[in-house]
Amino acid sequence: MILVTGGTGFLGSELIKQLTDKGLAVRALKREQSKIPALIANNNLVEWFVADINEPSDLEDAFEGVTKVFHCAAFVSLSSKDKKRLFHVNIDGTSNIINLCIENNCRLLHVSSVAALGNAKKGNQITERDFWEYDAKAHAYGLSKYEGEMEVWRGINEGLNAVIVNPSVIIGKNAGFEGSGAIFKLIKDGFAYYTDGASGFVAVEDVARAMILLMDAEIAGERYIISSENIHYKDLFKEIAVGFDAEPPKKEAKPWMLGIAWRALKLASVFTGKEPAITKDTAKSSVTLSYYNNNKVIEQTGISFKPLAQSIKEITQFLK
Fold it and tell me: Per the database record, which ranges form the NAD-dependent epimerase/dehydratase domain (predicted)?
């Protein structure tokens, strides 16, 4: 039996779809209040199991008869106020999954993030050999994913059969305007600014395909960057704008401007109670140049990634 944590999430639901399309039965974890996405609703090959990864007693029964575990569940936020929850879910919750995998002799594929990787050295691309260097000012999400990944390495040292994937920014039409889809809404609504930053992006379908290939491969104790292409935000915003027949951003938001913006929005949130659209961490990441190397996963699995331009076209056409 295959167990998928975070089954109702953006990545988890796509993974479940691909597994069941192959005729494989899946047991998927969901929280009590989570809604099952239309993508996998009424799927007879999915057994839904209500459990919280932070409640080990709930999880024990879910592992009955399980031989493979895809750990997709995570909490994502770049708001400093969510630090406690980020650590609780992404570190403590992952630790619970690791312990049960060891106890039940399950093979694990853990979804980490490029946020857990090191920074590029002297303009080089970031690879799997890079490790995050502790930074007291680092955003809590990156730290939580790094510490969560360290739990997996701890398990591997204790005999766990596991492999780790580090996806870059995952995009896809089923995200809608949430998560990474917020970028598309921003441009669709006529956002006028771009930042001098860059990052890697990848289609959700490719991340799920890579995960299945790596789970089925005779590989253990390795990590893999899952990313299609690196792109500057200015070029990304332009392609999205073209997809929406919108005006592309033409003004560069300088770091000092972003500094004023996140401070002003943070102050405003005190009075409005609404989450600020820009935080200190999002401002910092938007002007960071991060380039990721995907050679390892291509060489060891033979996967070919969907071109980013094609992904953007598909997403914008769907969201129109």
Answer: 2-225
For residues 305 and 202, the answer to whether their CB atoms sit within 8 Å is yes
3-state SS, residue 32: coil
For residue 187, name the pLDDT band (cuts at 50, 70, 90): confident
- Reported pTM: 0.89
* 198-203/229-232 β-pairing: antiparallel
Radius of gyration of the chain (CA): 19
Strand blocks (E) in the chain: 2-5, 26-30, 46-50, 68-71, 107-111, 161-167, 169-171, 193-194, 198-203, 222-226, 229-232, 251-252
Domains of the chain from N-terminus onward: 2-173+200-229+291-306 (3.40.50.720)
The span from the CA of 293 to the CA of 225, in Å, is: 7
- Which residues are registered as beta bridge partners of 26? 2, 46
Band of the pLDDT at 255, cuts 50, 70, 90?
Answer: low
